[in-house]
Predict the 3D structure of the following.
Amino acid sequence: MFFALGMGALIMVGCTAADKVTKNILNQEEVMAKMSLEDKAHFVIGTGMAGFSGDDAVIGATKNLVPGAAGTTYPLDSLGIPAIVLADGPAGLRIDATREGDSATYYCTHFPIGTLLASTWNTQLVEEVGQAIGEEVKEYGADVLLAPALNIMRNPLCGRNFEYYSEDPVVAGKTASAYIKGVQKNDVGTSIKHFAANNQETNRMNTDAHISQRALREIYLKGFEIAIKESKPWTVMTSYNYINGIYTSESKDLVQTILRDEWGYEGTVMTDWFGGKDGAKQMWAGNDMLQPGKKEQFDSIVAGVKSGKLDEADLDRNVQRILNLVEKSPRFQGYQYSNKPDLKTHAAITRQSAAEGMVLMKNGQGGEQSSNEKALPFKENVKNVALYGCTSYDFIAGGTGSGNVNHAYVVSLLDGLKNGGYTVSDELKTAYEKYIDDSKEAQKKAIEEMAKKDKQAAMLARFMPGTLPAEKQFSTEELTAQAEASDIAIITIGRISGEFLDRKAADFNLNTSERLLIQQVCDVYHKAGKQVVVLLNIGGVIETASWKDMPDAILCAWQAGQEGGNSVVDVLSGKQSPSGKFTMSWPVNFTDAYSSRNFPIDQDPKIDMLNQGQKGNVRNVDYTDYEEDIYVGYRYFDSFEVPVSYPFGFGLSYTTFEYSDAKIAQKNDIYDVTVTVKNTGSQEGKEVVELYISAPDNKAANKPAKELKAFAKTKLLKPGESQTLTLSITAADLASFDEAASAWVVAEGEYQFLVGASSQDIKATLTANAKSQTTKANDVMKPQAPINLLKR
Ligand code: BGC
């Protein structure tokens, strides 16, 4: 049966036997036959971005579909092809909250940042969060969410680490996979990004990542491989950078040979916004869609086909893949969205998920200055809380840039404590609120002044992380009086980061005002017999080694979304026992991470919105040598025995766990490791169990001392309760990438299977043998010149 649906005569309505749901089916052959070369060239680029795309932008036609969305595909009305809406991602849907001439609001739930979600190590929970985000995508009329983002946290200072999951590809891949499955349960799409090696923001559109084939395969592509194979995202977004001299969006080796031929990906590939330079080359490579589209790209594609530089069949193939995407979209399927997602339920989901990803770093473990007594959860007698640190009052929900969400509210720590029935010092509140208002006013004025001189710079400044005020200081007398009037002190240390900018080295360290505040509050409160908790409201790792002895407890709350204050109080009060663990190492000094030798520290960010710059020759700005090779994060610290402040996989609980009965069973190519975890403390809690492998003769073979291969989390265990977990891996998971053979190779011999509570807290060591195994891969994406690689 054919049915017009107001979109022309090319839509067929049928009934698929599988789901018995009426489905609009697109007659692709007929559509393709009717498309002119110009139609095709339009169709493979987006509809432009106001003020950025040149005269050809048709943004007027589509910008009102869902205002504030990042872009749309190109509509071909006469052929019945609607524009579908692409919107950011990843901490929630990013669209405008208000619309001109419309009194309704379109707020979206601000969920926790990606780093926090990964820190839950709870893929089921991540899937639930994804499902809730997907419902907002669908009910607000968007079709594809531009998320998740899963670049490797190569260095602590990458400005977008907050969006990313981990320094480890298995954690990143499994977390992304769960997120994608959750979102796509709503029959909307995702765009896994940024493919690949978008590991710095400095000069992000023109920087060339020089990476060995092995590190690419084992570290930078592995997470994508896991997520793409497991969860089939509707789209993949290529990154801005070059890898080994070729833009990722212009790399057939990446987008066709590896992604499609080796991994079997069947979806659509799009660029990041204004990414890549040569439209015709991008088409040839199989980067199907160029977003948000520029006139030059259109011209280059049309000219390419006319001159024979671009085979029209390549263009047709890309057109077809975009048609597949459009066909699946809610908009094409005629979904009647409500503009009324279930925000109330989602607020509860974000609150609960955020609490689960917080990491308890210290709790009365002594140290030179802190007490041995556990400060958390708050004892019965804790009623009055003295709250320090600007961010306690102005909680940071997430990072800035495209990863931001236009939320209706953010529950600050102040509000969270009040909601939890605690009393907060009014005197401190009044003083802080005035201090914060004055500082915001000063920032606003500075941007207004900037706008008078340079409109675009001012627009960018609004999009970028602002600066947080220096911490307010108090006299000893003031602090003494406050300590007397309260039962406990909390100091929040905040950090804001975001797109376009890498963090500065100074941002890793505490500044003088923060250090003084911690020191003075700890001194005075400890003298008064009161405890101090430091809360970290941050999006990336900071320095802790020099001050962690001072407070009695430290909780990393990350940037926990719009319910952040409530989530923190759920943990502080003991309503929810913390069960998050770090998905990255916390170096003692920022320079301890080997990658810091090859990272743009405090460099000019070189922001280039439209990719008009040229490839220069400044080290770490125009190109970056990934000299640490595969030794990223704990693969470096643990293999080279470099001390860290907190290891990968670390996180405390209010209770304690005992591991027993660790066993390994090997059947054919599957290794099943089982371990029983018992809650031996007096509070409920969940435990994350990590499975690492250590290859035979790993040092001689230049392999890491250990590599995470699987993880699992217990259910909520009551005191005395046990659970047996099974962690399974396959023989193929034991492989390393052998460049000389262009293959994944499993070395024959005895492997250690390490069952750990962190990368440095191994509870059981098991062994099993593996036979040698070789799986050929394509010899592609080679560095153009040798890199001075770190070896064990
Ligand atoms: C970001 C992407 C984002 C896109 C659309 C780019 O600047 O890198 O992550 O999806 O903008 O907003």
Observations:
- Residues 221 and 563 are 33 Å apart (CA to CA).
- The radius of gyration is 26 Å.
- The mean pLDDT is 94.
- The first strand starts at residue 11 and ends at 15.
